[in-house]
Each structure stands twice: as structure tokens, then as C-alpha cells.
## 1
Amino acid sequence: MEYVVITFLCLSILLYLLLGGADFGAGIVELFTSHKNRSRTRETMHHTIGPVWEANHMWLIIAVVILFVGFPAIYSVMSVYLHIPLVIMLLGIIARGTAFVFRHYDAVVDEMQVVYNRIFAYSSVVTPLFLGIIAGSVIAGKIDPQADSFLEAYVFSWLHLFSVAVGLFTVALCGFLASVYLIGEAEEQQDRRRFTNKARGMNMAAVTCGALVFIAAAVEGVPLVRWVFGNAVSLTAVIAATLSLILLWFWLSQGKTKKIRVLAGFQVTMILLAVGYAHFPDFIILRGASNLSLLENQAPPSTMAALGWALLLGSVLILPFLFYLFYGFQKKAPGYLH
């Protein structure tokens, strides 16, 4: 049953990056859209993510619950030594959701709409930035349970070049995912071309930030090159992601909206597989020789069994309705942009 729980944990993290990340990316796209086109971009985003954006946070909640119940030692270390970026990320989620609601449903339309728009756009950058910083911190080997100062324990555990580079890479990935998804949601050809150009630009930004991650890893002593190129599975994932990148650019020029959505999700999956496979089952890499493992740092077997059955039964009851929710809101009324 432990592998069932671990599978749900990995899937929850992946789906949150793919779906929640695309929601964050919508705000990133808006931030980098010219003033004259922002109103149309906002309208497209509102009808695309408005009905389902809150449901995407379900994956983050599931991941947190799994860590809390099934891997309390891992949850404890993260919540203690990474509490600053965690709080900033959660505040970003709250600020973004609040601004999204008020800028569309506020009873009074006044200059506060400008404030709501700015909060939405900036928090859409801050949230994935710190999500990436947290992800980089758990594998960077900078968390030191023996630290004897506040800065060493709670600041330098996450504030370093590698984690910041991973954060920037995450922002670029979210912007890329949103651009790709929005291409198929735009009704006007002009809007499709804009989002296609945005997808190309965000993709180039992601490649650049990815290179920065490798440079930062070399500087910080993180064995990223060995993880990514040192085993057959990770190397295959990297090759698949690279080849799919070429195909994605070709399909972008052909306007294959459904295919590029699948391919974009495939690329992100391959990136996570390439990095995560080499150090599995270690989830947190600590400073020194000790790490926290998904196989060795578990709750008691009875707890893992109960958690596994709860996840299996919950998925049977919830997932079909969640998929129907997404399907239902794909049916847009004709001319909804007007």
C-alpha cells in the first residue's frame, strides 16, 4: 500500500504543476501582454480558468495531506525549515484568488480594478516562483537540522542560487503551459497568433532558465548533471523532452492546439521524471549524509494502509465528477468574448 500512497503523491504534484501551474501562468501571460491587448486576454482567461481554477488547488491539498499523514517526518522538516517560502507561496495563492474574484465580481467598478489586476498578475508570478524555490530547496542539500542560527536554519536553507533558479524556471514553465492552453481557447485568429507567439517566447524563457538551473547546480555543488544524465531512465526522459520540443514548435506553426497541449504536458512530465528518478526514494536531501526517504520515513503500516484505501476510494468517487466538471466548462456559448 505504501507504493499506492507514493504514486498518489507524485501524481498530485505533477497535476498541480500542470493544471494549477497553467492557472498561475495565465497571470504571467497577462503581465507580459501589451496594454491594448490585456482586456481581451483577461476575458479569455476569465472564461477559461474562472469556473475551475479553485478545483486545481485540490492537487496541492492532496499532496499536503499525504505528506502530513503518511510522511510526518518529511512534512515536519519542510514546514519548519521552509516555513518562510511556504507562507509566501500560500499568501500568493490567497491574494491571487481574492484579486481574481473581485476584479470580475466587485459590485462597484472603479479605480480598485487596477489594484486587483496588479495583485492578480504579481501574485501569479510570486506563487510559482516560491513553489519552485521550495522544490529546489528540498533537493539542494542546504537544509541543515543541526543549524545553530536563524539565518542558517530558516533563510539559507532556501535562499540560494540553485533554488532561485528553479523558481525562475517554474515561472517560465507556468507561463509556457498557460500560453499553450490559451491558444485553443481563443476564438479570434489574431488572439491565437498572440498566444502562439507568447508560447514561443515562454518556451525560450524556460530553456534559458533551465540552462541557468544547471549553472546554479554546478556553482552550488548540486549533482544535477549526474541525476539527469547518469542513468538510462533520466537520460531517456531528457531525450524525449528534447525531441518533443522540436515537434512542439512544428505543431505551433501548424496550429495543432490539442496536440501541443498534450505535448506540453508530456514535456513537463519528462522534466520531473528526469530529475526525480535518480534520487528516488529520497524526498528531502539534507546537508550531510542523511536524507529523508519516502520508503524509510513513513507513518506506521496501519496508517499507510488506511491512507492508501482512502485515496483509492476517494479517487473513484471524486475523479469522475472532476473530469466532468472540466468537460462541462469546455462547452462555451458562441460569441462569449463579445
## 2
Amino acid sequence: MKKGSSMTVVRLAALAMMTALVFVSNYLRITIPINIGGNTSFTLANILCCLSGLLLGPIGGLASGLGSMLFDFTDPRFISEFWLTFLTKGAMGLGAGLVMYSAQKRSEGGYVRCLTGAILGCVIYYILYFTKSYYYNALLVEGLQSGPALVTLAAKIPASLFNGIIAIAAAPPLCLAIRQGLKRSHLALN
């Protein structure tokens, strides 16, 4: 078997594994209802969404989007917006992955690059998440006026900050540790 084809199999297996890990990590959440409408969650899934991009490059966006979307299929509260979850969480992994992909081309991939990727992934995700929460959840689904819709966004800020900070803090060291283990095992993903 050629080296290139075996690396494709390893990357495909890693993609499937990261999709499964993102899916399972979505169950690690505390959901809090918001009085005006909707809900917010403290979750560890964003760590794995960022990590999938940091480990796999841009294709990691597929793992973060698919894993999160599959979770939405299992929960009646989220099933109607599975396609939005695929796009927003996928963009999170894609953003982190693009930073790592550019680093791989220059043979850089240390902590600062991982941190930059995690920050970019979270910023992209939260811009999309708050846009979705305002237009789709608050205005369209809940039928709220603009003022109350903005209040629902304000209620989501504490959980979003927690989720983003935890993802930014945890994903880069996890990425570096996993990359080292893969390198020692001669299973580097790049």
C-alpha cells in the first residue's frame, strides 16, 4: 500500500472518530431555559469542535458540523435547526482548521498557532450563533419583537463566554498532546 493511501485511511478514521467524539461531547451539557424564549447551555462540545479543526485542518469542520448535527437529531428541542448547527459548528472547526492548514504549509504548528486557531474558530462560531439566535430562534421561531429578541441574546452571553473560554483554553494543549502521541506512533495526520 502506498504511503499516501494509508495516510488517507488514517485521516478518514480520524475524521470518523472526531465526528463521534463531537457527537458524544454534546451530551456533556447543562441546559438552562431562558424566560423570554429558547434556552442556553453550558457544554464541553466546543472543545472537541475546535480540536477537530486543529487536528485535521479544514476537513475538521466536517467532523464538528456532522457530530453536532447528529446530536440535534437525538433531541427534539434542536432537531428543527440541525442544518444551522451543521453550518455554525462546521464553521467553527473550519476556522480552526484553516489556521492549522496554513501553519502546516510553513511547518509551524506550536501552541500559539493552535491558540490562534481555537480563537478564530470560536469567534466565527459565536458570530454565527448569535446571528442565528437573533434572526432564526428569536424573531422567526419565537415571533419576538427586536427588543425582547436582544434580551434573549444577552441571556446567552454567560454560557457562551464560558463555552468559548473553555474551548480556547483546552483545545490547544489537547491538540499538541495528541499530535505528539500520533507522531511517536508514526500516525501523523499530515
